[in-house]
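Our collaborator T.R. sent over the components below with a one-line note: 'Predict the complex.' Nothing else. No constraints on interfaces, no templates requested, no preferences about which chain binds where. So this is a plain run: every listed entity goes in together, and whatever single assembly comes back becomes the starting point for the next discussion.
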Amino acid sequence: MKLEDSLLKQARALYKDRLRIALAAFIFVFAITFYLFYSPEIITLGITPRDGVMPTGWTQGFSVVASVNTLGFFSAVLLMALIFKIWSWAFLPSPASTFTLTVLRGILGSQTLIKNSFGKRFRVTLENGLQFDVNCSIKEKDTGEWFVYNLVSTKLQCDTLRNIALRHGFGVKDNRLVANVSNDELHHRTFLLTKAMMLAGTTI
Amino acid sequence: MENNSESASVYDLVTLMSSYNDTRRAILLALAHIYPRSVSGVQLSRLIGYSGKSRSLYRGVISHLKDEEVIQIDQLTPKLYAIRVNNEHPLISVLVELCRTHGENARKLYLKALEEE
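Returned assembly:
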């Protein structure tokens, strides 16, 4: 447990640090973009407020605001924000994926096929070919809890599926076994999920 | 063992309970002891000695337990919820039965804690 805890602590610190660095970089890039888009000639959109509505100085200001440059600038900022969002959403800090893999390998055996193709999702294939997904969220929005996992099995066809699910602490959604587990439960509940899937898989 | 399927249920219950973390175990034990009484989110978070906000407990652990059909939540008013264990769950009914037969003293403690508002 000690090792795992320290891994998650590291992952948390790393994540926070990365956010800070990304934010600093964002401010820097923002300034450069601002310069790049407004230092060349201003190309106005041709929209001008009617005479007499605003003082003349304001009309000039307005033409700068309503310009192709502004449109370009905003789309550049939007793009940056989007990239940042995707980056922070898709990738799990590496100590956290080490933690997850260690726990899963520990309970399922080192021979088990675990694919970590997409940042926060681990797809586990059991010996009998059944699969389940372990999805990690870095920080749960509603509760502020760190590294919460969502377990989802593949669709299972079994008459007693609900009973098997409940007896192993899982809910059933769309013929899949599902549960949300915290990181200190990952070990044991993955174990129960595997057991439940073996049972459901053999009693088709 | 007198009844094999009964002891199988107890075995499943033990493995299930040990798969949960501290918070979930505390919630289930407390609720199973006081069943059929239900408690509000605030009462529950006090009962299990939860230090965070009861709202985050509610949105996290409690709603997850509800998805797994281990507990039931009745909405009394838009802001007041009644939380209790789901006695129709195959293992929780075993736990409730155990608490009922052997947990008289623990129940008294829980109920006393609930009355001290």
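Summary for T.R.: The mean pLDDT of chain A is 84.
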